[in-house]
Amino acid sequence: MSFLLSANLFEDQWSFIILRDMLLLKRSTIKEFKSSREKIDDETLSKTLRKLYINGYIEILHIGSSLSNYEKYIASYKGLSLLPLLMELYLFSCDRFEESLLSPFELNFKKEATQNCTIFKKKIIREYHNFTQKLKIEVAFS
Fold it and tell me: In terms of CB atoms within 10 Å, which end of the chain has fewer, N or C?
């Protein structure tokens, strides 16, 4: 039963794209998610963020005063635990296309992940932790 519950995330490709954008590209705002090559529409983005939040994969940070309040989205511990799966999916996709079709980020990802995946995963986690700590400090002082 627990496997089935976990597999429910697969029914929605947008969840993986948003988590990829958060963890690997350090995106945290609606505008940043919309800039993705996959071109997610407003309604799908809203539904997916809500689903990820309700299921505990992301947290919402409210930044600014009541007049200029906006939200940033970050992966929770549960969302971060999907990093190995996301890395494998991303590496799988990078291996399936000609290198001429890959972006500079994808080429670098492929290179680093194939050199030493464990060290690369630790680097991503450390960088993401630093990124989210800065966002949390921003919230505390807004």
Answer: N
